[in-house]
Amino acid sequence: MNTIITAAALNLVAILILCGMYVTRHRRRDLVVSYIIINVGVFAVTVALANADATSAGMGMGLFGVLSIIRLRSTELDQREVAYYFAALALGLLMGIGLEPIGLAIGLSALLLAIMFVVDHSKLMTTLRSQTIIVDRAISDEEELKAYLSTQLGYSIENATIAELDLINDKTIANIRYTVGDSKKTLPATTGSLTSVR
């Protein structure tokens, strides 16, 4: 029982570190609740399965069932956010599975957090950002859209993918990847939100 309480406390510390890292870098507080709930939920289910009289195969199938119900929508989540989801899952599994000695679980969790800290560092990942934008013109050509947005925003648009083209209302919704420059115009730091461009 004491081991489970210790593991739960360590898991809570680990997920709070991960969430702190995410909020500091990406300024999206709305996903923090999801990360914590997924982490704690996976931890609880893993502890329950590990302490039940189940075979390794049964435990594996149980965990597979739990993880299979979690759906990550690529249209709503940036790849970095998906990476944070999997890190939250992995931390819950590592702490809940009951590795002996517990120092092994602590070491692996610390390694995972250190890797996330390094690979998601702004110095390593440059200033390339992604955004979903609403343009008040119907532009069907992606190169023309890139040129138009570069002029309007003052950023170097690396990629523009048209998500929706509305010829009736003269509107384009596009997913863009852009490099932050010295422009006075700024887009919200939140990745994936809608921004209107006129």
UniProtKB/TrEMBL annotation:
Keywords assigned by UniProt? Membrane, Transmembrane, Transmembrane helix
Ligase keyword on record: no
> Transmembrane ranges?
6-24, 31-48, 54-70, 82-99
User: Which InterPro entries does this UniProt record tie to the protein?
Assistant: DUF4956 (IPR032531)
| Name under which the protein is recorded | DUF4956 domain-containing protein
Give the source species.
Answer: Rothia nasimurium
